[in-house]
Design a protein that fits this description.
single chain, 420 residues, mainly beta, Tick-borne Encephalitis virus Glycoprotein, domain 1, 3 domains, nine-stranded antiparallel β-sheet, five-stranded mixed β-sheet, 15% helix, rod-shaped
């Protein structure tokens, strides 16, 4: 019987060595999770009458190969689409046969169609909306689909398209004197105190210039008051568009504006549509400091092509365009399972859902029990090489000991056979 016991021990040690060897071989595989063999003893109840005090074991048997889903080290890469999960969860990918699989390997790139894919071309899944014209956006849609970064750019947007006024934050020097020359003439700098311009865009993406001129009024007749003149693309400025009035105690804006700019298509002169927008001047101040513009904002832009793609810690896939615009295109989703060890390994750093694992619970990074995403990084294998080498030595000794038990049994049988 010792032959059977020793043989089972050899098989167990060999299986353990197989698992250890696989771990060692994948020590540099991104997202790999180390496995360990689980064994159990076997007994034959009939051999000792069924009582535990007289039962003789019949060796060992491999019960399962269990994976450790502990966190692997996170390493920075030069690819902004590489992603590492910090915490629970799996990336969801659509395989080339359109089945769904799960992975911890966050090495992704863009394919020729603009989809975010694994090295095997399998598509990363997430939340995304696709319009009839092919443009994509993220608006909270919760139907998982392959995430697409459109290979085409974005069209131009005219200033005022969203209804947001042009904004200017600036200061007018309260110490300036009334201009020496009157009336106002935009071609004569002595007829105004300060001038600035804002770039605006028409519906075809052509850039235009809106110039504003500020003339301080008599501090006795009109204290803390400045007249504002406007000029579009250096056209002759007419009468004052508005007057800014400031608080005498704080220098903050009190009244004046917004300025409404309406430019007909014929004046725009580029074939674009009429240009209409407001200019908000409420962020102006009048203080004893040099006249200067601190910030300008407007919602127009020229057309742009995709310059780069990045992923935020919340899983938002963002495209930055050559015109300076940034768009949220989609959101990466993560899957969690009640029993990750019930997943079936299908190779290529992928797992498949099984009855034992339970159904995938899908949510965004950071939601519920899901971990967060580290962009431009990958999760290394969680194999502890020193530990695996020690286990290898132990299993080697176990294998030798089991082989010795078989050899000893062979010697005993040989002695019996040689009896005369």
């Amino acid at each position: 019987m010792a032959f059977q016991q020793g043989l089972s021990g050899l098989n167990s040690s060999a299986r353990a060595l197989d698992v250890i060897s696989s771990n060692v071989a994948n020590a540099s595989t991104a997202g790999f999770k180390a496995s360990s063999a689980v064994f159990a003893d076997t007994f034959a109840a009939a051999m000792g009458g069924g009582t535990s005090s007289t039962q003789v074991g019949m060796g060992s048997v491999n019960q399962a190969v269990r994976q450790s889903f502990s966190q692997g080290a996170i390493t920075a890469t030069n690819n902004p689409l590489d992603m590492a999960i910090g915490g629970n969860g799996f990336f969801v990918v659509q395989r080339n046969n359109e089945s769904t699989a799960y992975t911890r390997n966050g090495q992704f790139d863009l394919d020729k169609d603009g989809y975010i894919v694994t090295p095997l071309g399998e598509r990363l899944m997430g939340y995304q909306s696709v319009a009839n014209d092919g443009t994509v956006s993220f608006i909270g849609n919760t139907t998982p689909r392959p995430i697409l970064v459109p290979p085409t750019g974005i069209s131009a947007a005219a200033t005022g398209t969203t209804g947001t006024p042009v904004g200017i934050r600036a200061n007018l020097d309260s110490g300036l004197a009334v201009p020496a020359t009157a009336p106002f003439d935009q071609n004569d700098p002595t007829s105004y105190n300060f001038a600035t311009s804002v770039a605006v865009y028409d519906s075809l993406g052509n850039q235009h210039s809106l110039a504003l001129y500020f003339v301080k009024q008599d501090p006795v007749a009109s204290p803390n008051t400045w007249d504002v003149y406007q000029s579009f693309d250096n056209a002759a400025a007419g009468a004052a568009t508005t007057s800014l009035v400031f608080d005498q105690s704080t220098g903050n804006w009190v009244s004046g504006g917004p300025i409404t700019v309406s430019v007909p298509a014929a004046t725009v002169g580029t074939g674009a549509a009429d240009l209409n927008f407001d200019v908000n001047l409420s962020a102006f101040t009048q203080r004893r400091s040099v006249s200067a513009v601190y910030e300008t904002t407007q919602d127009g832009s020229p057309p742009g092509e995709v310059a780069s793609v990045s992923v935020s810690s919340e899983g938002l896939v963002q495209a930055r365009y050559t015109n300076g615009q940034t768009r949220d295109l989609g959101k990466v989703i993560l899957a969690t399972f009640r029993n990750p060890n019930g997943l079936s390994s299908v190779g290529d750093n992928l797992w498949a859902e099984t009855i034992d694992s339970g159904s995938a619970a899908l949510a965004g990074p950071g939601d519920g029990l899901n971990g967060t995403i580290n962009s431009g990084r990958i999760e290394e294998s969680n194999v502890d090489m020193s530990q695996e080498l020690v286990y290898m030595i132990i299993q080697q000794r176990n294998y030798q000991a089991n082989a010795q038990s078989i050899r000893t049994q062979d010697q005993l049988l040989q002695t019996l056979i040689n009896l005369r």
